[in-house]
Amino acid sequence: MLCCMPGVAFVPALLVSWSSAAFIISYVIAVLAGHVEPLVPYISDTGTKPPESGVFGFMINISALLAAITMYIRYLLIEKQNESSHFVRSSCNMFTLCIGLMGCTGMGIVATFQELAVPSVHDIGALVAFGSGVVYITLQSIISYKSCPRWNTYFVCHIRMAISVISCIAFIPMIVFASKISMTKIDWTPGEKDYTYHFMSAICEWTVAFGFIFFFLTFIRDFQGFSLRISTEIHED
């Protein structure tokens, strides 16, 4: 079904489907194995111990690659639209792409360095991934408004901005509550020390993560009318 989509719409569709599956599959395996409590664990908690750690690491790395490809195509799409409309500076478009790629790098760090094995590196990767991701979708929302009404509808722009605002609002308490947790563990139970901070931070983390997924879902329509062509030139001496 993905291959039958017009243009390159299958790329964000694959990103959304794969990333959602990565979160859900890792969560289900971790819960069934008894490694985490079912009630709102951290996303990273569901990919810390084997066998779910292998699934989590593999699938999140693929998600990071798909996200990078999606962001690059989005960059090319805006550059092409900008040739006739001139609604955004090319430098701004490039800056947005760089921020997005930083987020993808952070995702790769999170997937590679497990939470309990190298917590400091893992936390830095998570901060870069979520922080850069929030900035990226906010900048993309602003660019979307600038491209109206020729390249986007105001309805889609409102949806993107709403997702961006919710993600920004959730990102701040996610960091604040996480900073108040005094221990690194994955098997949290209600009533123990710092559980409330963990619970609130985890809710915010899932909100931001699925905010990214829903945001990329809005790219599918834009990508339907855009196709990539690879041209080769042969020079003879």
From TrEMBL:
Domain CWH43-like N-terminal per the UniProt entry, residue ranges: 8-225
Subcellular location, record wording: Endomembrane system
UniProt-recorded name of the protein: DRAM1 protein
TM ranges: 7-33, 53-73, 94-112, 124-143, 155-177, 197-220
A Gene Ontology BP annotation from the UniProt entry: regulation of autophagy
Main location: membrane
Keywords per UniProt: Membrane, Transmembrane, Transmembrane helix
Phylogenetic classification of the source organism: Eukaryota, Metazoa, Chordata, Craniata, Vertebrata
InterPro entries the record matches: CWH43_N (IPR019402), DRAM/TMEM150_Autophagy_Mod (IPR050911)
Stated family: Belongs to the DRAM/TMEM150 family.
This protein's GO CC annotations: endomembrane system; lysosome
